[in-house]
Amino acid sequence: MGEVTANIHQLNDSVFAVIGIDGATNFGIIKGSDDSAVLIDADIRRMDEIDDALARTGCKKIRYLVNTHENFDHSSANDYFEKNGTIVVGTNGCYQALEEDGDEKFAEMAGRSPELWTRFPGLKMANLQITFPQEMTLRLPGVAVRLLFAAHNGKSHSRGDAIAILDRDKILFAGDLLYTDFHPVTVYGNIPNWIQSINQLLGHDFVSVVPGHGPVSSGGNDVYKSAFRKFRSYLEDFDGRLKEMKAGRKSPGEVESYMKSGAYTAMGKTWMVKRNIEYSLREAN
Ligand SMILES: [Zn+2]
């Protein structure tokens, strides 16, 4: 594999986000004063980018890896990091989800990139080592990362949704509870619950929010709130159209073209819309 330069968004002296190209997953790096780090999410297919980001931010040891939820693009490097002495942390809900169908999903996703096994012999799905029901705090010298379970009624974007908060810096890592500029994956979640999770997050006060996919919203309370409100109205609108479709008042094609037009014209990953609609139809039957 060749040289890869990570797209690093620096939030302050010790907090960074690695922004995925074209809406690929964002990762978080929180650095302690001893150059140890908490890594938030990691995708084994993007290890070159992650290694580059860790080197350029001066991180010497990854003490904890947080999975904001169970999806492959957030949890597939658990095995790699565990083997290198990192402790992998997430919610009980994420653990349960990986326990139930993590192996199957891992095989399906990794099967599309068979070169992974050449580079990482014996690579497999690895579950969390430390789990929490509602809240826990990870501490490095000079910095505390507060993790909260955020899946309303056990399922919002997914079953394991966690957010990470740096109270001192008023920074939020929202995982896939927030997408900015890209169509979301809704197939693993429950949209009404997801909206409830967003409502709860709107009660906070943050300077910056790092979404699971898409650019960071920085610049203060109004900016972070408007990012969530914009995404919430997307979810409300989409949910309403899905209900009309299920009631026979709209065709899947009409819903799809609506979600790709008007206020949503500029959003990336347009192919996701059809997939989300098709899944919702299957679920209804
Ligand atoms: Zn994701």
Descriptive notes:
By secondary structure, this protein is α/β, with parallel strands linked by helices. The chain has one domain: Metallo-beta-lactamase, Chain A (4-Layer Sandwich), CATH 3.60.15.10. The chain has 9 helices and 13 strands. A hairpin with a 2-residue loop joins strand 8 (135-140) and strand 9. The longest helix has 26 residues, at 221-246. The protein binds zinc ion. Zinc ion binds next to helix 2.
What's the gist of this structure?
This protein is of the alpha/beta class and about 280 residues long. The chain contains nine helices and 13 strands.
Supply database-style keywords.
single chain, 285 residues, alpha/beta, Metallo-beta-lactamase, Chain A, 6-stranded mixed β-sheet, 9 helices, 20% strand
Hetero ligands: zinc ion
What's the name of the CATH homologous superfamily? Ribonuclease Z/Hydroxyacylglutathione hydrolase-like
The CATH class assignment is: Alpha Beta
- State the end-to-end distance: 44 Å
Tell me the domain tally.
Answer: 1
Listing every helix as H and every strand as E from the N terminus to the C terminus, the arrangement reads EEEEHEHHEHHEEEEEHEEHHH
Question: Helical content, roughly?
Answer: 25-40%
Question: Whole-number radius of gyration?
Answer: 18 Å
Uncertain segments are none
What gross morphology would you assign? globular
Q: What's the number of extended β-strand segments? A: 13
- Order of strands, widest sheet: 1-2-3-4-5-6-7
CATH fold-level assignment: Metallo-beta-lactamase, Chain A
Give the biggest sheet.
7 strands, mixed
Mean pLDDT: 96
CATH architecture: 4-Layer Sandwich
Structural class: alpha/beta
Binned strand content:
15-25%
